[in-house]
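Here is an idea for our session: we take a single protein and study its fold together. Which protein we use is up to you, so please pick one and set it down. Once you have written the record down, we can walk along the chain together:
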Amino acid sequence: MRTARSGVRELLLARGVGDEACDNAVVVTSELVTNALTPRPVTGSCAGCTCRRT
């Protein structure tokens, strides 16, 4: 999860997104990754995260 959070933060800050919006996106990312991995944690499992600007 740390990798997803830091990746989202770095991407958004590099694109000039404000601190509050960036913090909110990091929280959402953390929740989504946690929810994706919690039901069936498998050793060596992999998950992806894609950010899109809309």
